[in-house]
Specification:
Keywords: ATP-binding, Cytoplasm, Disulfide bond, Nucleotide-binding, Redox-active center, RNA-binding, Thiamine biosynthesis, Transferase, tRNA-binding. With about 475 residues, this protein is of the alpha/beta class. The protein has helices at about 10, 15-35, 60-70, 90-100, 125-140, 190-200, 215-235, 250-255, 265-280, 300-310, 325-335, 335-340, 360-365, 375-380, 390-395, 420-425, 440-445, 465-475; strands at about 1-5, 40-45, 50-55, 75-85, 110-115, 150-160, 160-170, 180-185, 205-215, 240-245, 285-290, 315, 385, 405, 410-415, 435, 455-460, 480-485. It is built from 18 helices and 18 strands.
Length: about 475
């Protein structure tokens, strides 16, 4: 199964040294992708194209695999399926091209297009006329139409070899992965971060993944699965890392110590500080985020300025001027929308009245109320996983937790909502004790409760309570359930 790969147009206009380097990177990426997806490949790089042979046969399975994977390799603008053979005369070319194109000409106009490379005793136009004449004479048709033909017969000639093009496919475009440096994507599992990660990969960046865990294992597992999906589909030519940062302690201090109007900004500033440290550890030159101007209160220009000011490395925002619906549409196109739609939504640090243009001095004053060792502590507890190990990691059985809408006689309700929510709308359940324990303290404080009682974890949406319950189950606690009245 043979293919001709056309380069991304921006590669074609580069200087000779740059172009040669990009072609070399793309060639190696093709070998790596083939190795990762278990198919044989041969690659011959040329100045204006790359010739690829996939597999040892022309079976439908080989073709489907090759077309699928080649369409997902950054750096390829388009690629052609071809029949390759040696020729001496135009009759030899027609003998191969005739059975492929001839039956489709009945009742249609056609044109022959020849691209020629090398020295030949004929021009491309002469080859088109001779081969076109054979088609016109030997297959029923409505004649030649050079302007707007119903069928275009594509043939390429390279020295003594001819390539009859049987199909054309669109590539991913962009630059080869690894050609534009390394970056660290702050991925949350939502629509935005998945699309921004894809866009960074499309522009040739080798992207690792950074996840801030603020609520338990369920969210982390979902984000791991999405990250693996993006890598496996679009960037498997390079080995990268998935890093998890436990962020409960930081979230807890933001909620307990800082003004509600700037909590979202402080949270992002802490992420940037930690992200910068992890990026340095992984030799990444930039952080990638899915932020878009004005989408939420922390993404006003003023607040983005406050956020960027604490980062030690470049912050890139591929979606900075995108509309939300365009982002959602892009997520559907690249295949990540399903993850975003089913991802547990974390909403622990949201203010009722966020400040969209706070003064830098006020943000810094509120931030100073937190412990100074938070960043160092979070970085020290980072868990680094090779991206290829995620399937094994996520295939571990998730702990099942009982969910009820009515309580047993002696059940104690454990309200795991954020303190602000619990204060504004105190939970009262007739006939049952209610204990308030914020979600970010559940993991560390649950063991101090009376282990002879059964606890029904509660939150407004049932997401945070389920996350915490699963984590407690994994730690060996069984006197619990999730309460969804």
């Amino acid at each position: 199964m043979k293919f001709i790969l056309r380069l991304f147009p921006e590669i074609s206009i580069k200087s000779r040294p740059v172009r040669n380097r990009l072609i070399k990177v793309l060639t190696q990426n093709l070998f790596n992708v083939a190795l990762n997806h278990h198919f044989a490949i041969k690659v011959q790089a040329q100045w204006d194209k790359i010739l690829v042979t996939v597999g040892e046969d022309d079976s439908d399975a080989t073709r489907e695999l090759a077309v699928r994977e080649l369409s997902r390799v950054p750096g390829i603008h388009s690629f052609l399926e071809v029949k390759e053979f040696e020729f001496e005369r135009f009759d030899d070319i027609f003998a191969v091209a005739g059975p492929i194109y001839g039956p489709s000409l009945e009742g249609k106009t056609f044109a022959v297009r020849v691209r020629r490379r090398g020295n030949h005793p004929f021009t491309s136009q002469e080859a088109e006329r001779m081969i076109g004449g054979m088609f016109k004479a030997l297959y029923p048709n409505l004649g030649v139409n050079l302007g707007h033909p119903d069928v275009t017969i594509n043939i390429e000639i390279d020295q003594g070899k001819a390539f009859v093009i049987t199909d054309k496919h669109q590539g991913m475009g962009g630059y080869p992965v690894g050609s534009q440096g390394a970056a660290l994507s702050l991925i949350s599992g939502g629509f935005d971060s998945g699309v921004s990660t894809y866009k960074a990969i499309h522009r040739g960046m080798r992207v690792s993944y950074l996840f801030f865990n603020m609520g338990g294992t369920a969210h982390e597992l979902g984000v791991k699965q999405e990250s693996y999906f993006i890598w496996d589909r679009y960037a498997s030519s390079h080995r990268v890392k998935f890093v998890t940062i436990p962020f409960e302690r930081i979230v807890g201090q933001i909620l307990e110590r800082t003004h509600h109007g700037v909590r979202g900004v402080i949270l992002k500033r802490m992420m940037m500080r930690v992200g910068s440290k992890i990026a340095e550890r992984l030799n990444c030159e930039a952080l990638i985020t899915g932020e878009s101007v004005g989408q939420v209160s922390s993404q006003t220009v003023t607040n983005l300025n406050h956020i960027d000011s604490v980062s030690d490395c470049l912050v890139l925002r591929p979606l900075v001027m995108e509309d939300k619906q365009d982002i959602v549409d892009a997520a559907k196109a690249i295949g990540t929308a399903g993850f975003a739609e089913s991802m547990p939504e974390y909403c622990g640090v949201i203010s009722d009245h966020p400040n969209v243009c706070p003064k830098r001095s006020f943000v810094e004053e509120e931030e100073a109320k937190m412990d100074p060792d938070l960043v160092a502590d979070a970085v020290a507890k980072a868990v680094v996983l090779d991206i290829k190990d995620i399937p094994e990691d996520t295939n571990k059985l998730q702990v099942e937790v009982e969910t009820v809408n009515t309580l047993a006689h002696n059940d104690v309700v454990l309200d795991v909502r954020a303190p602000d929510d619990a204060e504004k709308s105190p939970l009262k359940v007739e006939g049952h004790e209610v204990i308030t324990l914020p979600f970010y303290k559940v993991s560390s404080e649950f063991g101090k409760l009376d282990n002879l009682k059964t606890y029904a974890l509660y939150c407004d949406q049932g997401v945070m309570s389920l996350m915490q319950a699963r984590e407690l189950k994994e730690k060996g606690y069984h006197n619990l359930k999730v309460y969804r009245p």
